[in-house]
Amino acid sequence: MKKLLLALGLFVCCQEFVSAQDQNFRFGVQVSPTWSWLNTSDKKLDGSGANLGLKLGMLGEFYFAPRYAIVTGLGFGFNQGGTIQNGYPQASLWKDADLSDERYRVVDQDAKLHYRLRYIEIPFGLKLRGGTGEDNPLKYYAEIPIFTLGFVTKALGDIRGTDNNTEDEDIRDDVKGLSLAWGLGAGIEYEFASSTTAFAGFAFQQQFTDVTGTVRVQKTMGADLVDEKSKASIGLFSLRLGVFF
To answer: What sign results for the dihedral spanned by CA atoms 24, 29, 35, 36?
Structure first.
């Protein structure tokens, strides 16, 4: 929590300084509910569930033309991830994690492994803003594309659907610490005053990078566990709500 507050404080100070120097700059905040899931490259490790989460953050927009802006910011993503259902006779997706019991190291077929990840995120992209007239307070916007660099700060996991269900396992060592995603978004803005604008919209985000890395699986009943390259990535929809000042 202290790191989160320090990062927010530093970002606010930088934004206030830039805003004071440039009238083409807008500073804002967002609170965005999210719905995320895991896609996998292995048909026997199936993404089978979604997470409800939240994004909080600071936003900055620099307008280099009347309707076009470079957007960036600093955000925090909570409870991102989803669930992977094991289709192998046995599998070990959390082979390096600091688990509370070694029984959870290997799971049986149909076990569901639930990922709950927390990220610090830095978005960067292009925004188009328009409307029906200069005097109309209602505007629309589109963000295409938005690239997001993410850093995992916490990773918890639950195992479900077995006799050895568990919760809140520390799986940080089995989750890639760095992520890169692309996305797009669209919505509307309403200007209440010359310096205050509320906005609402939708956004989609998909990771390029892998979340899980190499896993160990039993391909046939009774065989040894072997390494299997399986890529899992997070997809996400968010309802974006916020205010620009």
So the answer is: positive
- Cis before 66 (ω within 30): no
* CA–CA distance, 98 with 223 (Å, rounded to integer): 26
pTM of the model: 0.88
- Residue 135: which pLDDT band, with cuts at 50, 70 and 90? confident
Domain boundaries, the chain: 2-244
Alpha-carbon torsion, ordered 55, 56, 62, 65, to 10 deg: 50
Between the alpha carbon of residue 240 and those of residues 99, 125, 188, 193, the distances in Å are 35, 16, 10, 21
The arithmetic mean of pLDDT across residues 145-171, rounded, is 93
**If you classify domain 2-244 with CATH, what class do you get?**
mainly beta
**Helix, strand counts (H, E) of the chain:** 1, 13
Q: What confidence tens digit (pLDDT) does each residue in 2-49 have?
A: 444 444 444 444 444 444 445 699 999 999 999 999 999 999 999 988
Residue that is written with structure tokens 């307070």 in the block: 137
